[in-house]
Amino acid sequence: MTQKELTERYGNKPPIAVYADSNWGGLELLDVEHGIDEYAICRWNYGTPGKIHRVKIQYTKSESVPYIRIDGYSISFNNLMRV
Fold first, then answer.
1. Which residues make Cβ contacts (< 8 Å) with residue 78, sequence separation at least 6?
2. Within a 13 Å sphere around the CA of 5, how many CA atoms are in the beta-carbon half?
3. Pairing mode of beta strands 81-82, 58-59
4. β-pairing, 73-76 with 49-56?
5. pLDDT of res. 62
6. CA separation (Å) from 29 to 10, 53, 62, 79?
7. What pTM did the predictor assign?
8. Contact 11, 52 (CB under 8 A)
9. pLDDT for 51-81, tens place per residue?
10. Mean pLDDT rounded to a whole number for the chain
11. Which of 6, 34, 59, 74 has an alpha carbon within 20 to 30 A of 66's alpha carbon?
12. Cβ of 28: how many Cβ atoms within 10 Å?
């Protein structure tokens, strides 16, 4: 999926969960695509929404906890707060 397609499809969609990275904002989870591989649709937001990312969801070996790796961060779904 191209960046243009992601923006057209998810540009105005409200987040379903957030990860507070600082006092000013953090990561917004917009959607989860299910299939053979699962992908998280997310973006950083610090007052103005950033570029939308499509990131593969991975699982820990020991506890099978889902997490994503984005821009050098490893964010567990346990640390997301539903909106």
1. 65
2. 4
3. unpaired
4. unpaired
5. 87
6. 11, 10, 24, 12
7. 0.89
8. yes
9. 999 999 999 988 889 999 998 989 999 999 9
10. 92
11. 6
12. 23
The DSSP bridge pattern shows strands 58-59 and 17-20 to be unpaired
What three-state secondary structure class fits 3? helix
How many residues are given for the chain?
Answer: 83
Amino acid residing at 1: M
The 3-state secondary structure of 16-76, one letter per residue: CEEEECCCCCEEEEEEEECCCCCEEEEEEECCCEEEEEEEECEECCCCCCEEEEECCEEEE
Q: In total, how many domains does the chain have?
A: 1
Closest CA to 80 of 9, 12, 15: 15
Residue 21's pLDDT band (cuts 50, 70, 90): confident
